[in-house]
Specification:
single chain; Growth Hormone, Chain: A; Rossmann fold; 2 domains; 8-stranded mixed β-sheet
Length: 530
């Protein structure tokens, strides 16, 4: 091997390192972008589609520009400078977007749909320049690495392979480790910093004086990071204090406490309270209370008939806590996909062995774990929605058939479903789907909310059973139960079905909800939140 060949091989190796690092950063930024937006706007298909679609658009533009740029200026220094600027601007994204997201968060609280949408678009636009710049890297590297047309195919394949390997690492490392450990903003900074360092070394090897000018960039990022990381992404509600703020592999998590001693669990965009706790009160007048009504839709149900319970979507344990207040030592299995939420529940919501010794918690996907538990339950509750969404895999005929197989002969299933005052399509579609599996379905509209509780029974039952069972309650029952059954009777509504059936093959849950939310906002429904 000649000296020129050795030099070319060494230079190509550094090009491969640049391509690998840029590929890793692009995917890491894309996944971190979904979390950055998800913290405020949620993680629906619309958010994902916008993130993925626009990233692909920016990369396409980058590939096109990169090829032409490389032909006009086929120099390594040009490429290194492009990468340095791409790394620098990638690091700025979360720092510049944070005040925008804070405005968007307040817009959500105030139901200012236009401002929230504008913030969403503004943040997505921030990604345009850095991702476009990083998209130029692969065609630029090919132009620089190919010196012999006979090896063009081989070198191109190697470059795309290195970029893809980097993308694989950039896919898994943020989700599995960095975001849970460091948070979204610091994850951006880590990957951008690695890319900047590699490109800076490359430029320093070529032009030392030119490289030193770019040392101002990390100083700027450090100053902005210090400022941006002060305070909360979503400030606590008026009169409340923040007890906890953090990120997990699945959620942006906050725990707030108001002046009355109520603790609230907020996730992601904060449009729903996922758990509540108060040291002196167990009745909240909210959606969770209505889960206690479920077994009393059965024929002649008495408190002593309560055998065991499974809760899918445990959150921080509000529903099990209420059940245990009424049925002390009741065996309860709880499934929660996010281990960090479980830890928060243990620390701030008494969801631990000291206060709930009969609760067994599983950190797993709800449907997967359901099929691992070879038990029969009197009640199976599902509260795994992400307001106003329900994971589609927990809405299908096949899933409800799996639920049925885990219920006793007199068992019931209860699920929380989102709606608006004028659009009940999701409720009606789920009612239709449940009716394929269960003989009787009953509905309660939770007052002052956009939630309906659906109860499905293993035996044919009547809605009037709820009041009949209320009347025959023994005097010794916990007052919470009597209060909740009274609320349930008052909240009963007729069930309706529409010609939509959710199956594992086709479950357009998010399509329905997206339409529901859009119509709600266009009709001025957001004013009802004020």
């Amino acid at each position: 091997m000649t000296q020129n060949t050795q030099t070319q091989s060494k230079n190509n190796a550094f090009l491969y390192l640049i391509v690998f690092t840029s590929g890793m950063t692009i995917l890491a930024v894309e996944l971190s972008a979904s979390r950055l937006l998800g913290n405020v706007f949620g993680t629906s298909n619309i958010v994902w589609a916008n993130v993925i679609g626009l990233m692909l658009l920016y990369l396409t533009i980058g590939y096109f520009i990169g090829g032409r740029w490389a032909d006009r200026s086929p120099h390594r220094t040009t490429m290194y400078k492009i990468v340095i600027w791409g790394a620098f601007l990638s690091a700025l994204i979360p720092l510049v977007s944070r005040p925008i997201l804070q405005v968007a968060s307040q817009a959500f609280v105030g139901a200012e749909a236009g401002l929230a949408l504008g913030s969403f678009v503004a943040v997505l636009i921030l990604f345009s320049v850095p991702i476009t710049l990083l998209g130029t890297v692969s065609p630029f590297a090919i132009r620089l690495a190919v010196t012999d047309i006979d090896s063009a195919g081989k070198i191109s394949g190697q470059i795309y392979a290195m970029s893809t390997i980097g993308s694989l690492i950039g896919t898994f490392l943020p989700v599995l480790f960095l975001i849970p450990e460091l948070g979204t903003i610091r994850t951006f900074l880590v990957f951008s910093g690695i890319l900047y360092f590699v490109a800076f070394i490359g430029l320093f090897r070529e032009e030392k004086t030119a490289a030193l000018k770019y040392l101002i960039m990390p100083i700027i990022v450090a100053i902005l990071a210090f400022v941006a990381l002060q305070g909360y992404l979503r400030p606590p509600q008026e009169g409340a204090v923040m007890l906890y703020e953090g990120e997990s592999a699945y959620n942006y998590i906050q725990v707030q406490e108001d002046a009355a001693g109520n603790r609230y669990l907020y996730l992601n965009e904060g449009q729903g309270i996922h758990s509540q706790w108060n040291a002196d009160n167990i009745y909240y007048g909210r959606t969770w209370d209505f889960f206690l009504t479920a077994p009393y839709f059965d024929n002649d149900f008495l408190p002593e008939n309560m055998g065991s319970m499974l809760m899918i979507g445990l959150a921080a344990g509000t529903i099990p806590r209420q059940y245990l207040a009424v049925y002390p030592n009741l065996p309860i299995d709880g499934i929660e996909i996010d281990p960090e939420i479980i830890a928060v529940g243990e620390q701030f919501f008494e969801m631990n062995a000291e206060y709930m010794p009969s609760l067994t918690v599983y950190a797993a996907d709800g449907r997967y774990m359901l099929n691992q538990l070879q038990k029969q339950y009197t009640v199976i509750g599902i509260d795994a929605y992400r307001p106003p969404y329900i994971p589609w895999q927990l809405t299908t005929v096949e899933f409800f058939s799996e639920i049925r197989d885990r219920l006793t002969d007199e068992g019931v299933m209860v699920i929380n479903v989102g709606r608006t005052n004028t659009d009940r399509r999701l409720v009606d579609a789920l009612t239709n789907t449940l009716s394929v599996v269960f003989p009787s379905i009953h509905a309660m509209d939770v007052p002052y909310s956009f939630n309906t509780i659906l109860v499905a029974t293993m035996q044919p039952t009547l809605a009037s059973n709820l009041n009949d069972n209320l009347q025959q309650l023994p005097q010794s029952v916990h007052p919470l139960l009597r209060q909740v059954l009274n609320d349930g009777v008052a909240a009963l509504v007729p069930t309706n079905t529409i010609d939509i059936l959710f199956t594992d093959d086709r479950a357009p849950v998010e399509t329905i909800v997206d339409s529901l939310v859009l119509n709600f906002l266009l009709e001025g429904g957001a004013e009802e939140f004020r």
